[in-house]
Design a protein that fits this description.
about 35% helix; amino-acid biosynthesis; Rossmann fold; Alpha-Beta Plaits; NAD; 17 strands; six-stranded parallel sheet; 14 helices; metal ion binding; threonine biosynthesis; Dihydrodipicolinate Reductase, domain 2; 3 domains
Length: about 425
């Protein structure tokens, strides 16, 4: 076999698979100069060969995994199918047979990444997954390599383009959530079932992967607190602007002396923060290290070609490692076993919008109840009045989540409280 040709198998030919296939074809003339070898797609695994007959040559198409796993000439397997199974089984088997793997599968890596990286280590194989987080934005490799000289203490970012597009439309055009979601769906930014995006699950999976790498300790999706954007209103965004904030769905991972905090939720961030200016479907990740200080990575977080860019970058990296006989050199970096804090143990400031009975002593009673739970009020504004009901906005100082939620539980029982309309966490740093 000509060692200057590296044969690849593509598992899946959907949006990302199509992007990978297109980029590989475009890059073929430059490959010998870039990586010292040529990449050749030998097989493309699909469920329905007829569906792709006009896009992929017949000799490349297969619907049988055995055509790939039993072919020793295929050295790199690229998994862009999505989902846990059969992707997990295929990757396990490929690594066990000494084949290198590239995956864009955030669901899989957020749940079983540690296990798969261990198999890769045992067989001195590369398992690369840059595309699993933030699409075309390089973030995994920078944290594993470029920022290795740092103790990273915080990673935060906008890591879901669908929700950022929705919040941008709500902020700039005054749209309500349902209308902005419909627009996102019509334009192809949101899936037919948008639950994973709008409820924060997609961002939670990506955050688990980033936290594991940043803090060198295994974090899974089950460890991540997730809260979506479906309760955010145009009114909240308008009030946030008046207070000097923008509302974004943020993934926040923080290393504290007590353990790791990992959470995804709508967050009010100061308008002057770089993340506040990230609009539409763009993503951005903010990293704080002790040596580098703050670094931000910004770009397209999804799409056929941006995600395909990250996948092909990984493939070419593996091919270069093979060329120089140094595969398996960068594997699992989780050499610590740190606790993950419960959400109730984390601290934040809070924005609360509520409707109160407009009578003497109401605000004093409310402030007293917050105070008895060690919740200090930073700001209290009356925004509107309807009949005998007043709309009030309160912003607290930093407080333990448990203490704040205990206060809210009691406040809900007070006769003068007609409605708690919104609760949004506030990030000051």
């Amino acid at each position: 076999m000509d060692e200057s040709i590296k044969k690849i198998a593509l598992l899946g030919m959907g949006t990302v698979g199509g992007g990978v296939y297109e980029i590989l074809a475009k890059q073929k003339p430059n490959m010998p100069a870039k990586i010292g070898s040529t990449l050749q797609v030998a097989k493309v695994l699909v469920r329905n060969k007829a569906k792709y007959a006009d896009k992929v040559p017949a000799d490349q198409l297969t619907d049988q995994w055995s055509d790939i796993i039993d072919d020793d000439s295929i050295s790199i397997v690229v998994e862009v199918m999505g989902g846990i199974e059969p992707a997990r089984t295929y990757i396990r088997e490929a690594l066990s047979k000494g084949k290198h793997v590239v995956t864009a599968n955030k669901d899989l890596m957020a749940t079983h990444g540690h296990e798969l990286l261990e198999i890769a280590r045992e067989h001195q194989c590369d398992l690369l997954f840059e595309a699993a987080v933030a699409g075309g934005i390089p973030i995994i490799r920078p944290m594993k390599q470029c920022l290795l000289g740092n103790d990273i203490t915080e990673v935060m970012g906008i890591i879901n383009g669908t929700t950022n597009f929705i919040l941008t439309k709500m902020a700039e055009d005054g749209m309500e959530f349902d209308d902005a979601l419909k627009l996102a769906t019509d334009l192809g930014y949101a899936e037919a079932d948008p639950t994973a995006d709008i409820e924060g699950y997609d961002a939670g999976r990506k955050l688990a992967i980033m936290a594991s790498i940043a803090f060198h300790s295994s974090v899974t999706f089950d460890d991540v607190y997730t809260e979506g954007i479906s309760k955010i209103t145009a009114k909240d965004i308008r009030y946030a602007h008046e207070l000097g904030y923008e509302i974004k769905l943020l993934g926040l991972a923080k290393l504290t002396p007590e353990g790791i905090e990992v959470k995804v939720h709508p967050t009010m961030i100061p308008l002057q923060h770089p993340l506040a200016a990230v609009k539409d479907s763009f993503n951005a990740v903010f990293v704080h290290g002790d040596a580098v200080d703050d670094a931000m990575f910004y770009g397209r977080g999804a799409g056929a070609l941006p995600t395909g860019s990250a996948v092909v970058g990984d493939i070419m990296d593996i091919a270069r490692n093979m060329q120089y006989h140094c595969t398996g050199r960068i594997g699992c970096s989780c050499y610590q076993s740190l606790p993950v804090k419960k959400m109730s143990e984390t601290r934040s400031s809070y924005y609360i919008r509520m409707k109160l009975e407009d009578r003497a002593g109401t605000l004093a009673a409310l402030a007293g109840l917050f105070g008895s739970n060690n919740v200090s009020i930073s700001m209290l504004l009356q925004k509107a009045k309807e009949g005998n009901t007043a709309e009030v906005v309160i912003v607290t100082y930093d407080v333990m989540e448990k203490q704040f939620m205990d206060s809210i539980t009691v406040i809900k029982t007070m006769s003068m409280v007609k409605e708690i309309s919104s609760i949004i966490r506030v990030h000051h740093a």
